[in-house]
Amino acid sequence: MNHFAPFPAGRPRRLRRDAATRDLVREHRLHPSDLIWPVFVHEGHGLSTPVPSMPGVSRHTLDRLLPEVEAAAKLGIRALALFPVIDANLKDPQGQEALNPDGLVPRVVQKLKQEFPDLALITDVALDPYTSHGQDGVIDELGRILNDETVAILARQAVVQAQAGADIVAPSDMMDGRVAGIRQALEAAQQPYTRILAYSAKYASSYYGPFRDAVGSAGNLGKADKKSYQMDPGNGDEALREVAMDIAEGADMVMVKPGVAYLDIVHRVKTTFRVPTFAYQVSGEYSMIKAAAAQGWIDHDAVMMETLLGFKRAGADGILSYFAPEAARLLQR
Ligand code: PBG
């Protein structure tokens, strides 16, 4: 470890004296290819529905999504994370629509892959957009989440997505053993190159509220919570055990979620495992910045960029963020 010489030989401010010097010694930089853009898609044609709790974010029909994706790709964004808004009449307690090869996600994936073959497409593996109770898995008569039964369904869901052309499947459900279940099913379905981005350390967070509004699962979930599968915000070591298990089960990349409140976890995961590590700046984090900026209390662009850079400094290889296109546009200047 290098240290500065004692004052006055050592003057850290020398390196901060002008912009050129600051640029020379900057340790971390943000690049558009660091950004993964989460997008919401719903059924229909010619429709974009704004998400009230996420200013600037809309749910699009496929035809409306295409020009948005084209613009994002031109800005240098290389990856999209796809989240479906499923019609209420297609939801049931088993989330069966998740396995429909002609469902919304497979159709959107096929079209996006056709139009943008160089874009990495990430699909979410979890049942909450599809279940009438809004949980990520199937439940018993007491409402408890059934682990192994859910894993069997998730494995089939991942295969449907991979067969449609998804490059990366991302289990966000936090069932035990799901990475192993998905990896085995992908191998059996002759999809050995489908990557698994595991939401390994996903916390039972109150920052997901606006997302649940966006996909329409908030009403289904009601007063129930996800604490029996998502992690307790008080735990750090446990995140490392989760990551270790997911890597052993066949995950190619791991994720920590939410972001800013869990940067210590991002850092520990990266320094402990040295695997591709991603962080998700979730809906509530996005909306907080938007809300404060709308009040004129903070500088929107400066806070957005400072926050995204913080993820990289903590050790993230990439960041899922609803700011992706806005940030990429700023980086182009
Ligand atoms: C659910 C899922 C959630 C998010 C991504 N996938 C919400 C939840 O667990 O309830 C949240 C993302 C966000 O808040 O931006 N499988």
TrEMBL record:
<dbReference type="InterPro" id="IPR013785">
    <property type="entry name" value="Aldolase_TIM"/>
</dbReference>
<comment type="similarity">
    <text>Belongs to the ALAD family.</text>
</comment>
<feature type="binding site">
    <location>
        <position position="242"/>
    </location>
    <ligand>
        <name>Mg(2+)</name>
    </ligand>
</feature>
<keyword id="KW-0350">Heme biosynthesis</keyword>
<comment type="pathway">
    <text>Porphyrin-containing compound metabolism; protoporphyrin-IX biosynthesis; coproporphyrinogen-III from 5-aminolevulinate: step 1/4.</text>
</comment>
<feature type="active site" description="Schiff-base intermediate with substrate">
    <location>
        <position position="202"/>
    </location>
</feature>
<dbReference type="InterPro" id="IPR001731">
    <property type="entry name" value="ALAD"/>
</dbReference>
<keyword id="KW-0479">Metal-binding</keyword>
<dbReference type="GO" id="GO:0006782">
    <property type="term" value="P:protoporphyrinogen IX biosynthetic process"/>
</dbReference>
<protein>
    <recommendedName>
        <fullName>Delta-aminolevulinic acid dehydratase</fullName>
        <ecNumber>4.2.1.24</ecNumber>
    </recommendedName>
</protein>
<dbReference type="InterPro" id="IPR030656">
    <property type="entry name" value="ALAD_AS"/>
</dbReference>
<keyword id="KW-0460">Magnesium</keyword>
<dbReference type="GO" id="GO:0004655">
    <property type="term" value="F:porphobilinogen synthase activity"/>
</dbReference>
<keyword id="KW-0456">Lyase</keyword>
<feature type="active site" description="Schiff-base intermediate with substrate">
    <location>
        <position position="257"/>
    </location>
</feature>
<comment type="subunit">
    <text>Homooctamer.</text>
</comment>
<dbReference type="Pfam" id="PF00490">
    <property type="entry name" value="ALAD"/>
</dbReference>
<dbReference type="GO" id="GO:0008270">
    <property type="term" value="F:zinc ion binding"/>
</dbReference>
<keyword id="KW-0627">Porphyrin biosynthesis</keyword>
<dbReference type="GO" id="GO:0005829">
    <property type="term" value="C:cytosol"/>
</dbReference>
